[in-house]
Design brief:
Length: about 190
Amino acid sequence: MINLTYLGKIEDAFKKRGYGYQWHVMSGYIIEQTLGLDWYRKNGALGGRRAPPFDQSMKEEVLALDNYLNFFRLGHMLFLLRDTPGFEQLLADLSRREFEPVFFELHAAALLVQNGYPIQFIRPTGVKGEDYDLRANVDGQLVAVEVKARRAGPIKHSRSMRNALKKAKEQLPRTSPGVICIAISTEYDAEEEG
C-alpha cells in the first residue's frame, strides 16, 4: 500500500537532485509497494532479468532512456489507477500473465482516466465477445476496450495489422460500442502486400 506521507517525504528529499532523479525514486517506491520487492528486483532493477518493456539493452543511450521512461510511466500508471475498480484483481492475475500486455493495458487505462473517462478493469473470461480488458464510461455510454500489445514481433504488412484487429474485435461485444487500442512497434512500415 502506498503511504502518501512517505511519498511526499521522498519528493521533498530528492527535489534538490532534480526531477529525473526524484521521479525515479518515487516511481521505484510506488512500483515496489504495488507489485512487491521481488517483482521490482527481478523486472525493474538493472541487474535483474527484466520483463518487457524493461528488457532493453542498457548499452545504447536511446534504449536506456526508453527503459527509464517506461519505469516512470509504470510508477505513474500504478499510482493513478490504484483506486480503479478491478485494479486489485489485475495485480493478483500478474503472476499468470506476461507483463508487457499488462503494461499496455495500464497505459490505455491511464490515457482514458487522464482524459476524464472513468474505467474499470475487466477480468478475462475466455468467452468470445466478453473477453475485453477495460470498460470505460464515455459520456454516460459504457464502452468495451480491448488492448493489444504485439508480442509476436513487428507487424511488417497491412494484412498482419488487419488480422490483429480482427482478432481483437472478436473479443468485444457485438451489441455495444467498443474500442481497440493496439501498441504498434516502431518497426511497422505499412507496406502493402502484392
